[in-house]
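Duplicate of #3305? Posting structure anyway:
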């Protein structure tokens, strides 16, 4: 059985593991990855092929560098193949999926992630949050949002009804159940599978880890050509450095920075701090506690039941209001402390709350894990998602 996975990113060390390409030979579900980033943004694709980004090569990961290559690969597709798009909302993605349907392929759709919303804000409230960055900024954001909805509605013309929906947690399973969608395949996420491999507890070492999201210069911002002119990179990292130093002094421990998997090894903004590449899970596992702003790797900290300190940079609302929304979501759901950093990169530690930070609410952590990161009654936790997909659709 063959599954074509459409993506929009380079193959690097982390993605090689996330895509389970090292296990492809032993898998009954052979996966072929088609990468359309070279067509969407050739300059960005070439940037991430440089040595400092730790690129990988694999015969089952194909970089589609021309429309002829798309045509050539589509010619080899037949009705026995399966297809899933994880490449984002691009016309090319919808068109390739549409052609796959015409060729008789079975279409899968993954409903990934989980919802960050707790109490839905009114439009005026969200507008006022944007207005803090100025009238012109707010107007541009509203225009971009309107154009996005026009784009999505247009692209939906080419969307097809999936044969199977893939879900990774209880929340999404229940959401599809409420919509009376029956063809649902429950799988373990990559995050959960990697956690399950190393879940045995060991005594934590005397350091805390910062989960870098490279939010100040992210892949997503580059591909969308969002320059984030409001963000002062120097002040941002200076603020982080001050926070790390204060935590080190108060709690008598040092920081290790778990670099984002797309950060260049040549890009280490704090010269006196240690940056570690492609080691995030083990850094979290062995840490005393975790400091994070808006990074999906927080899920590993939750699964491993690590104390967490959230950093809420008000400035990052200029990228997306979801940044503060997600911080509030985690704080409310897990009863964990937040340090709020204003638009001038200033903050205050609450000493009493900081002392309590190393204590966690294990029941809330477990409830969160069972609902958002896996299932209330886990089945086959030892299997990765590809094996689970094969078992349920073969």
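Output from current build:
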């Amino acid at each position: 059985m063959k599954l074509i996975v459409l993506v929009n990113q380079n193959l690097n060390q982390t993605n090689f593991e996330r895509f389970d390409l090292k296990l492809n030979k032993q898998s009954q579900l052979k996966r072929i990855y088609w990468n359309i980033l070279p067509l969407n943004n050739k300059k960005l694709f070439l940037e991430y092929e440089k040595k400092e980004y730790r690129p990988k090569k694999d015969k089952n990961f194909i970089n589609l560098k021309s429309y002829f290559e798309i045509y050539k690969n589509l010619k080899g597709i037949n009705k026995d193949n399966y297809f899933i798009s994880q490449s984002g909302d691009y016309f090319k993605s919808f068109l390739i999926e549409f052609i796959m349907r015409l060729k008789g392929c079975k279409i899968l759709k993954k409903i990934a992630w989980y919802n960050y919303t707790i109490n839905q804000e009114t439009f005026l409230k969200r507008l006022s949050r944007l207005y803090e960055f100025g009238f012109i900024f707010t107007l541009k954001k509203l225009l971009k949002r309107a154009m996005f909805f026009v784009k999505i509605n247009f692209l939906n013309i080419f969307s097809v009804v999936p044969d199977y929906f893939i879900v990774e947690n209880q929340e999404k399973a229940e959401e599809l159940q409420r919509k009376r969608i029956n063809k649902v395949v429950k799988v373990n996420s990559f995050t959960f599978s990697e956690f399950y491999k190393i879940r045995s507890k060991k005594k934590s070492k005397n350091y805390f880890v910062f989960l870098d999201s490279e939010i100040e210069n992210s892949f997503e911002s580059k591909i969308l050509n969002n320059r984030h002119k409001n963000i002062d990179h120097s002040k941002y990292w200076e603020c982080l450095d001050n926070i790390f130093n204060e935590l080190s002094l108060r709690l008598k421990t040092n920081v290790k920075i778990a670099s984002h998997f797309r950060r260049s090894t040549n890009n280490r903004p704090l010269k006196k701090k240690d940056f570690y590449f492609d080691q995030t899970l083990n850094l979290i596992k062995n840490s005393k506690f975790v400091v994070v702003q808006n990074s999906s790797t927080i899920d590993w900290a939750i699964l491993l039941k690590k104390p967490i300190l959230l950093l809420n940079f008000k400035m990052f609302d200029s990228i997306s209001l979801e940044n503060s929304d997600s911080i509030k979501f985690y704080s409310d759901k897990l009863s964990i402390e937040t340090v709020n950093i204003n638009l001038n990169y200033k903050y205050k530690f609450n000493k009493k709350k900081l002392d309590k930070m190393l204590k966690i609410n294990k029941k809330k952590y477990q409830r969160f894990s069972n609902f958002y990161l896996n299932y209330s009654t886990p089945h086959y936790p030892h299997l990765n998602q590809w094996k689970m997909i094969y078992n349920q659709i073969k």
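Confirmed duplicate; merging threads. The chain has two domains: 2-115+159-189+375-393, 195-373. DSSP finds 17 helices and 13 strands in the chain.
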